[in-house]
Design goal:
mainly alpha; 44% helix; globular; disordered C terminus
Length: 418
């Protein structure tokens, strides 16, 4: 029913715009043409009960298309007979899941097939397929919203009153030069190049691929992309150095897929397979880990800080603490308990949040200002990061709230009156 509604909405929008599209995944072939075409969007897959529609509304195929039509067996399995047999079993398993109405993506790429072959249990494969299915639905919804916004924008400008004098505005005349995205990228890349020459170094330790699941590795690649993007926009960015990089690992492959120009000589990103012990003196290195007892009281511009590229949602283990002790490197953790009232749960932060905090802390050593990047859902009070630091005895915690509620409850008041 969901795809039926999406198909009707997309067909209505495309009919208004006059685009010619044969499939839901095709982009506009001729954006200048505004003639109404009889061909419409065709959605031929159903994930629940197939809706009954007349043939005049949507001319869809009578039977759903097969999801295993264009599988590149040579790229997935190669000449390995064992892998080919395992792939055929996997295809049969996914086909049974699809026929039983499970949430299965309509198309799987070569790397996605390889990732599924690495999963050993059926439940893990089902979770990963559902994850890919949700990503596919998000892309389809984003495509439909894009069409809706374009239709509204064109309708709004077409309905504007026509004036005899010069009109200024979007899609009209303008007295200013337009700043294109390419020019902004050149400015941000110039800042990163300047940071490589004169800025402060910060290290991202990418040696934790073996301790993360496939989903966690994908999430780690997204956080690394967000981290690099925020550092690029900052007014005083770091010189980010990726150390212990495994080019064949899932994390780096996903990162390189989102940044296709990562290997170009002019691209402002440094990564190496070497360890940070080979690049920097050991006495200058400080490993930021939430499991140690030493607090980072203020930012030191002479130190080189290390952030572990790790996402540990499934199991929280002190891997960074063990590695820092094994390599005999100084350790420090952010003083979160001094300045914030946390809710119940772990105090682990994402990689992009860590780079946000360290970038602002580098400017003025103001923890109150730097900790504003922590999500408010993790803090007990909405404005906890804005107030001055207080003593631990006066801080408001979840336990104190619970005790105060019990102490001032109606039941206790009645007992006191009696």
């Amino acid at each position: 029913m969901f795809l039926s509604r999406c198909a009707l909405r997309a067909h209505k929008i495309v009919s208004q715009l006059g685009f010619c599209s044969k499939r839901s995944t095709e982009i506009y072939q001729n954006s200048n043409s505004l003639k109404l075409n009889s061909q419409i969007l065709i959605f031929s897959r159903y994930y629940c009960v197939q809706s009954e529609r007349s043939s005049d509304t949507l001319n869809h195929e009578s039977s759903p298309t097969k999801i295993f039509e264009n599988i590149d067996y040579e790229s997935i399995a190669g000449s390995d007979e064992e892998t080919l047999t395992k792939l055929k079993r996997l295809i049969l398993e996914i086909d049974l899941l699809y026929e039983s109405g499970e949430q299965i993506p309509s198309n799987l790429k070569v790397d996605q097939w390889k990732n599924l072959l690495q999963l050993n249990t059926r439940s893990s494969r089902m979770k990963h397929l559902r994850y890919l299915f949700l990503i596919e639905k998000k892309k389809e919804n984003r495509y439909v919203r894009k069409l809706e916004e374009r239709a509204k924008r064109l309708e709004r400008y077409e309905n504007l009153p026509v004036n005899d004098h010069i009109e200024y505005g979007l899609l009209r005349n303008s007295m200013f030069h337009r700043i294109y995205e390419k020019q902004m990228n050149s400015l941000y890349n110039y800042r990163l190049c300047e940071a490589m020459l004169y800025g402060q170094d910060i290290i991202i330790d990418c040696s934790y691929d073996g301790h993360m699941s496939l989903k966690e590795q994908t999430n780690c690649a997204k956080q690394l992309l967000l981290m690099w993007s925020y550092n690029r926009f900052h007014k005083d960015p770091f010189n980010v150095v990726f150390c212990n990089v495994n080019r064949e690992g899932t994390t780096f492959k996903r990162l390189a897929k989102t940044i296709p120009t990562i290997d170009e000589p002019t691209f402002p990103l440094n990564y190496t397979e070497k360890s940070y012990l080979e690049l920097y003196p050991k006495e200058k290195l400080v490993y930021l880990t939430p499991h140690c007892n030493e607090l980072l009281k203020e930012y030191n511009h002479d130190d080189v800080y290390i952030i572990g590229a790790m996402v540990d949602k499934m199991k929280v283990e002190p891997l960074s603490l063990a590695k820092a002790k094994r390599e005999k490197i100084r350790m420090a953790k952010l003083p979160l308990d001094i300045y914030l009232d946390w809710k119940q749960g772990t105090k682990n932060l994402t990689i992009n949040q860590m780079i946000m905090i360290m970038a602002d802390l580098k400017i003025d050593n103001n923890w109150i200002n730097a900790l504003r990047h922590i999500p408010r859902r993790k803090i007990l009070e909405d404005n906890a990061y804005q107030r001055k630091p207080v003593e631990n005895s006066n801080k408001l915690s979840a336990k104190k709230i619970k005790d105060n509620f019990r102490r001032n409850s109606v039941y206790n008041l009645l007992l006191k009156k009696s």
